[in-house]
């Protein structure tokens, strides 16, 4: 008797699990479906169409009647995978350029002319490029690149070297590049033409400073891991292109650098030499175009 009761309960339980729901619309259409939730006056459900599992919702005002577990067996195969509702263009490519400034403080420099020179190097131009593939309407994965460049020149500055050499004139050309994988989220306007977007990337930062003092040339290089965050707004121009305004922040710091002069390379530990790291953090303000492919 106990076995019969257990078997009966299992049969009822399996029928309940595999049962399918019924929705009858105000247009008198019957839908064999699986209702997932009823919220804020809408019925959310899944159903099969042309061999694909889809999800959608209908307002209660458009439903004549609905009944859970109406059918004894499910019309949705157990291995059916939900088809994405996102039908928009999946590949988004953005390019932008603008103004950038480094946020690290200037310290340890007493000479006013040299301090002004270093301050000039804090500001420069930036260029950015990114490509993201959208898995869903609000989620994209991709790759991001941005570059900073600044230059400054002082014709009258005189520098003395330990070996007795004297150099007149100073010029620096600084470039900082970032590249790394990126996660992008976005919020579309009601008409789907404009977009607020936020992206976060972690990746590789390279640093290079080409310096000329008199007729002496040297190159300082370093690399590290950093993070870059973008906040942008796209104004749709066509179905394939948008005007983009963006603010971004890239951060990272160097523990050591390599200085190359006349073929000789010297590694300098910045913490030991100066008591501080070389800050690479910067803020970019830019504009550009985004293409939907």
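Sequence proposed for the structure above (293 residues):
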């Amino acid at each position: 008797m106990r076995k019969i009761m257990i078997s009966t309960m299992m049969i009822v339980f399996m029928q309940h699990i595999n049962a399918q729901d019924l929705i009858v619309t105000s247009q008198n259409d019957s839908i064999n479906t699986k209702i997932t939730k009823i919220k804020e006056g809408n019925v959310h459900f899944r159903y099969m169409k042309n061999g694909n599992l889809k999800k959608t919702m209908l307002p209660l005002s458009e439903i004549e009647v609905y009944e859970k577990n109406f059918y004894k067996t499910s019309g949705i195969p157990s291995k059916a995978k939900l088809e994405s509702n996102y039908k928009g263009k999946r590949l988004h490519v953005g390019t932008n350029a603008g103004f950038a400034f480094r946020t690290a403080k200037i310290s340890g420099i007493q000479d006013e002319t040299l301090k002004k020179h270093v301050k000039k190097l804090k500001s420069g131009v930036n260029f950015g490029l990114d490509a993201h593939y959208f898995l869903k309407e609000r989620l994209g994965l991709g790759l991001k690149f941005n570059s900073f460049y600044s230059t400054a020149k002082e014709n009258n500055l005189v520098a003395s070297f330990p070996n007795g050499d004297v150099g007149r004139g100073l010029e620096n050309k600084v470039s900082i590049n970032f590249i790394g994988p990126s996660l992008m989220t976005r919020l579309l306007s009601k008409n789907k033409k404009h977009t607020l977007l936020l992206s976060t990337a972690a990746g590789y930062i390279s640093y290079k400073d080409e310096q000329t003092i008199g007729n002496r040339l040297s190159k300082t290089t370093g690399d590290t891991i950093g993070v870059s965050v973008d906040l942008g707004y796209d104004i749709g121009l066509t179905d394939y292109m948008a005007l983009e305004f963006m603010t971004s922040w890239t951060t990272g710091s160097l523990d050591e650098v390599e200085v190359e002069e006349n073929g000789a390379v010297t590694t300098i530990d910045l913490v030991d030499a100066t008591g501080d790291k070389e800050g690479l953090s910067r803020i970019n303000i830019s504009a550009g175009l985004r293409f939907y492919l």
